[in-house]
Amino acid sequence: MVLSRPSSTTYLRLSILSALGMFAIGAHAAPNDINGVNDNELPKVELDKIVVTATRTPTKTSNVIAQTRVIDSEELQRYQGQTALEVLKRQPGISHYSNGGMGSVSKIYMRGYEGKQILVLIDGVRYSSLSTGSATLGLLPADQIERIEVLYGASGSSVYGADAMGGVIQIFTKGANVENSNFSVTAGAGSNDHYTYGATAQLTNENGTALSLSASHNETKGFNAKLPGTFGYNKDNDGFESDGFSIALNQRINEQWSAGTSALYSKSTVEFDNGANKDDYSDQENGAAQAFVDWRYRPESSVKLQYGHSIDKLDNKFGDEFNTKQDQVSLVGQHKLSVGQGVYGLEYLNQSLDTTATGYNTDDRDVKSAFLGYLLTNEQFDTQANIRFDDNSQYGNETTYNLGGAYHLNTNFRIGANYAKGFRAPDFNELYYPDSGNPDLDAETSDNYEAFIEYKTLLQSTRLTGYHNKVDDLINFNAIYDSEGEYIGGNYENIEQAKINGITLTSDWELNSYLFGGSYDYQKAKDDSDGINDGNFLAIRPEHKGLIYAGYRLPSFDIRAEYEYVDNYYSGVDNVESQLVDSYGLLNVSGNYQLTENLTMTARLDNITNEKYITLPGYNTDGINYFTSLTYNWF
User: Fold this and answer.
1) Distance CA 520, CA 611 (A)
2) CB 218 within 8 Å of CB 191
3) Contact 299, 280 (CB under 8 A)
4) Distance between CA atoms of 443 and 447, rounded to whole angstroms?
5) In this prediction, what percent of the chain has a pLDDT beyond 90?
6) Do 525 and 496 meet the contact criterion of CB atoms below 8 Å apart?
7) Domain boundaries, the chain
8) Are the C-beta atoms of 262 and 290 separated by less than 8 Å?
9) Residue scoring higher pLDDT (33 or 511)
10) Most buried among 191, 262, 471, 593, using CB within 10 Å?
11) For 310-343, what is each residue's pLDDT tens digit?
């Protein structure tokens, strides 16, 4: 079923481009506008946030070459009662689909790469399902997250190995940087009988001990996941219930030694439509834990030993169980050189899948890895070079590498380019899933080129990035439909070659207490195999996507309105009419208000215009919806 839409896409695209163009023009005028103004009177745009995902060592964003985005605790505050998926799907360069409401099957795509090709880390630990290959971001509560770092492109492959062809998303649990002891409780309610409550306690002392504990409960009756007249439809609401927990303990032993541990865990129940039975649901457990010891033997030089363990468990109650476990040990060092900095490491990863499904000839594999990196940052040049060797017990040896550089034309203006080689081994479902798996699949490899121009001042940050990706042996699910457009089966196959070209423009401004900006993505992701689908668009890759926002922020008050536009796209590479998803636009408003010194209110109103849209044929989405919460803090 395809819903009708007004044919105003051209106007919307021009509106987004015009708005962002005005931002860029304003950037060149900004220096003349601030002459003679005291620095203390200027707005607080943070130019140099510190990130670790891009290089595996703390690096200023103004020195990172590959595009990187930081979603901090202030931005996460707008997503009370929601999940990591809700946060990420609104970021530049990311598209998504969902099979219903909160907690349902979902997948994100970044710069044309799907979720299986995007590595997700929780505090440095790999987190994904070995059966589906993707991370269940829709089950990770945003309330348990301190910060998210997004690394775009394949440069992460030479740093983290397989599964990072399209980028890296690293989630940091609460408690990594506890400055003061505090305790808070939160309670919230929203549409569709949505309720949440939770508490967080953070303790620190003069002996270098920091402890953070957090727990939350989230539930909603939801809405009907499937559209009437589609296969599996039931006339009932499909709810979601989840409990989330996180813990972080860090101990500074002395000036050189520190140790710590952290964990993020969620246990969820998700209801869904499956034909005659109205009570179908799945139980899922997801999370990751890690422990580390860090030795800083000299300034800007250290060695870190870390052990990590992650799980992804699924019990469908009507079919098979899937239980994923990943264990990894890593030794990562950084050493200050006379010129630049060296990064090196050794890793061991064991991945195992325990399932009641038949046909899984292999359910365990090991990966042994070594990598080297070099970083150089100064007032004029930024350079990053990495090489990584992986020995996969199932797919043999693979070497990935990247080389990037940037030149500072002046203190505000920077240009740069990057090349990276990517690699991904098939997941176990692609190889062995009953009636659709293909044990003869080849691993995917990619060549990724990126160039950018960036302009930053005290008032704004604007970046234009262009990319060209060539993927060999891209693994695609070949869906089969009957004459009426209903799905009846399918199988996995290698596409000889695919090409992904695109640009991303981001611009963020802060003028006094006013914030505004946005992003625009143009993308062409196509089959380039000379086969039956040659020239067709790859699935869930809209050609145009944009977001504009405006807000007002004071110390005790923060409000933001945003409009997101997603162009039409196909749900399958066949590009037939039954796979077409029409374009849509969503208007959302969110805000925070500090009622007293200790009490804060957060509110969000999504899809204000009650847009009727879908992200996947046959599956429903929510109309206008709201959520509000109160948080009380003891300091």
Assistant:
1) 21
2) no
3) no
4) 14
5) 68
6) no
7) 9-634
8) yes
9) 511
10) 471
11) 999 999 876 788 899 999 999 999 999 999 999 9
